[in-house]
Amino acid sequence: MMMNRASLVLGTAQLGGNYGIANVALNRSVQQSNELLQYALSSGIGYLDTAPGYGDSESMIGDCLEGAEPRSRPQIVTKLPSVQRLGLHTEEARRRLVTSSVRSSLNRLKCAALDVCLLHDPLDMSYQDGEILRMLQELKQQQLIRRIGVSVYDAEDTQLFLSMEGLDSIQIPLNVWDQRWIANGMLERLARKGTELFVRSVYLQGLLLMAPEQLPAGLKQAEQPLLELISFSKETGIPVKELCFLYVRDLPGVSGIVIGCETVEQVRENLRMMALPPLSRAVRQKLGESFTDIPAEIIDPRRWN
Ligand SMILES: NC(=O)c1ccc[n+]([C@@H]2O[C@H](COP(=O)([O-])OP(=O)(O)OC[C@H]3O[C@@H](n4cnc5c(N)ncnc54)[C@H](OP(=O)(O)O)[C@@H]3O)[C@@H](O)[C@H]2O)c1
Hints:
Layout: E1 7-11, H1 24-42, E2 47-49, H2 57-66, E3 75-80, H3 91-109, E4 114-119, H4 131-141, E5 145-151, H5 155-163, E6 169-173, H6 180-183, H7 186-193, E7 196-200, H8 223-236, H9 240-249, E8 256-260, H10 264-274, H11 281-290, H12 296-299
Helix pairs in contact: 1-2, 2-3, 3-4, 5-7
């Protein structure tokens, strides 16, 4: 059986919650998030993916890591919030912001160093002639960060990433409906460059797993491809979830597959799928050929409203 090289990365955007008012639902959700993180740690999840922008997710992770055995500590991927959007006028002000953001993440996560720090805003790659990445390099030299990279949304961002030196990691969206990085050869180029490659949106925020009749009004366009995916699942006897998961897990060059989970059951399910054998060549080929023209309004969640 083929060895899986990709690790499972637990996405934590869903855990941060939008709390601030103390009520029963709030308490339940914090408790559930803690249970989920504890389960992830005890079951040997390799990485957690978080960001200062995901509500309280960094602090929750920090609280859980505090009591964890050093051996069972997962690697932490977090992000630097957009700097260019703030329009700060001096290099000094921008440096203060970058440094304090990284230090605040370290404090919340209760870590001595961030394993991976990604620019959350790909526009920061070229902002002020690459100044923000140079600042992260300095923090890497000070051993506050181990690896540096960017979370991207499209091919142009990736092209720019590929043209730069000194970057270790990238996070891209990719799933059975969104194969732009395969079609344009960039997945292969990233792999050849030896980049640490994280793939998110494997279930497209859960859209790929929805029943067609549950689709929100604004996403009715997704009904046809969803029916096609379900019909292919019936034909092959492989659940949609497994088709989506295994297709990405076994792409060459993928280091980590980021999956957002809201329940312990989902984490367990994704760990189970990590151990499944690969899809057959014929099934992979069919998935690779079937969904080549899904409109951008469906595959880019930023355009969903
Ligand atoms: N795991 C399972 O077995 C399973 C089963 C059934 C359903 N699901 C559902 O599938 C969904 C995860 O799918 P996925 O991993 O493919 O997701 P995804 O498309 O990677 O979406 C997660 C990304 O969306 C962005 N985001 C921003 N705000 C968010 C928020 N408040 N909540 C969630 N995401 C936010 C984040 O990216 P940026 O940082 O770039 O903004 C985050 O990394 C979950 O809702 C889960 O409940 C999972």
